[in-house]
Amino acid sequence: MERETKSVSRLELYKQVWETPVTQLAKTYGISDVGLAKICKKYKIPRPPRGYWAKKAAGQQMAKTPLPNRASNDTIDITPNTANQFDSVPDPKFSQAIAESANHPPIVAAKMLRNPHPIVAQSADILELCKPNSDGLLGPNANGVWISVYQKETSGGRFGSWMRSLKAWRRVAMMLG
């Protein structure tokens, strides 16, 4: 993907926003849909309301919100957000860390843990009382940590294997710096 700043007039961006869904249009500029929405807000460019594209696809005639007048037709510079883009070539430090982690012995989880960490024990007790939701996930509420029924069953009712996996990934992260 190009990482060069793209310039577009306010009027042209307005036309693009009403011709293409923001989620798709944002990709052409190398930014997120939220980032493009913020640009539209800053330059007072109206966007289609929720449900606009579905109604338009169903054949309904949809009205555009007119572009408010401004003293000048600003030129907008849009710089891609490179933090969320993946390079086609992986980071050599990451590749090295993965290769080195392959030399470690495999993580084997016990069926039951002896003297688990208090948070692990408490979490396991809470999850024993939970029923899976429609996606097969267990969790105390919408704000908690959700795990799959498979994870619970394969770790003997405890988070043992999950905690060990977390420690293994922590080792990789520490190696990467």
List the helices and strands and how they pair.
Blueprint (H helix, E strand, L loop, with lengths): L5 E4 H10 L2 H8 L3 H10 L9 H6 L17 E4 L13 H10 L16 H12 L7 E2 L8 E2 H6 L5 H17 L1
Antiparallel strand pairs: 1-2, 3-4
Helix pairs in contact: 2-3, 5-8
Task: Please tag this protein with its features.
single chain, 177 residues, mainly alpha, 2 domains, two-stranded antiparallel ribbon, two-stranded antiparallel sheet, 8 helices, elongated
Question: How would you briefly describe this protein structure?
Answer:
This protein is mainly alpha-helical and 177 residues long. It contains eight helices and four strands, in the order E-H-H-H-H-E-H-H-E-E-H-H. Residues 154-158 have low confidence and may be disordered.
Order of helices and strands: EHHHHEHHEEHH
Structural class, from secondary structure content?
Answer: mainly alpha
> Would you count the extended β strands for me?
4
Broad shape: elongated
Low-pLDDT segments: 154-158
Biggest sheet details? 2 strands, antiparallel
Distance between the termini: 27 Å
- Radius of gyration from the CA trace? 25 Å
Q: For the largest beta sheet, what order do the strands appear in spatially?
A: 1-2
Beta-strand residue fraction: 5-15%
Question: How would you describe this structure to a colleague?
Answer:
By secondary structure, this protein is mainly alpha-helical. The protein folds into two domains: 6-84, no CATH class; 92-176, no CATH class. It has eight helices and four strands. A two-stranded antiparallel sheet has the order 1-2. A two-stranded antiparallel ribbon has the order 3-4. Helix 2 crosses helix 3 and helix 5 crosses helix 8. The radius of gyration is 25 Å and the shape is elongated. 10% of the residues are buried.
